[in-house]
Input
Amino acid sequence: MESKLKAKTVMMDNSDMSFVSRFPGMDSYSLFDSDKYCIFPGFCDVHVHFREPGFSYKETIRSGSAAAAAGGYTAVCTMPNLNPVPDSIENLRMQNDIIGRDATVKVLPYGSITVGQKGEELSDLEGMAPDCIAFSDDGRGVQSEGMMREAMIRAKALGKMIVAHCEVNDLLEGGYIHKGQYAAEHGHRGICSESEYLQVERDLRLAKETGCSYHVCHISAKETVEAIRRAKAEGVDVTCETGPHYLILTDMDLREEGRFKMNPPLRSEEDRQALIEGILDGTIDMIATDHAPHSAEEKAKGLEKSAFGIVGLETCFSLMYTHLVKTGIITLEKLIELLSVNPRKRFGIENGGDFTVWELDHEYKVDPDKFLSMGRATPFEGDTLYGRCVLTVHDGKVVYEV
Output
């Protein structure tokens, strides 16, 4: 490995090694001036949108994986809202061909649950199973209970997980931010929490009935946390994720700008506190960015008319380190479990010796113009954060270095 940083190799059983030595897949690692740098197993994000094929003006496999590496990620799972939707062997192969050509980190695609993500007919789950990480219709909830039950039955037979974006369409009512105080005070149409947690509750019931492995995307509501907590206590095979923005911001932090618009929306302080409690008690298993880049034009139309989605790969660790670790809410070890250990374990993604090196005391202001992602929309623009990625190594190769 060639690097500008001088390193020495230290075996993991050395008694003076930090906690990172206890993580699997790291038999040895390079220690870079331990007073200044900290090394972690490569992060894993199970929820990103790299937009290719079909929307390469927003992001590409090449730019998305570069952004991932810059954020310390060496494995990501890409969502299927593409063109063509990966609902067949042929369509999935198109994406895998691009991944094979352009990806600089491990990129594992989802196959869609339904054809065209339209919710009308199940995709070729059996045909896609060998070449996708799991099945998801992310961006849309599967509205039919019967169809979701059948999807779970078939996914279980294939040894695959159902990964669900939970949203009841009939309850959306044209909303685009949380149906809460800010919406009421500023005349905006809101998205109620029921639209999320009612479908989660339905799916949890189906997962218990079918025995399917089930994972809930980007949870945002306190009722969702409680529903998953109850299901885990009942032995349901369920995990879930939340995003860094839901752990830091609420609807009262909104501004009339597209960079504050995502789906699900930023909810109330009570919801945020419930999510933090879910992190602390293990109800929430992992943090995923839902990295969702759009063009500048698509994000410049205010809260009502901008596209849903923000970018997050290049700021996630720093956000969580600054707001959760430095404030004493969680330990650094817990953060690494949320960003690397837990998602890899649940999704069966081996680390293979990948690692990332961070300068934790480095202070900086978030400047989207410096992102490697083609997306620039972040609600954290201009915020002061701590932690800089200085090196990321995947499959024995330096894929990012300052």
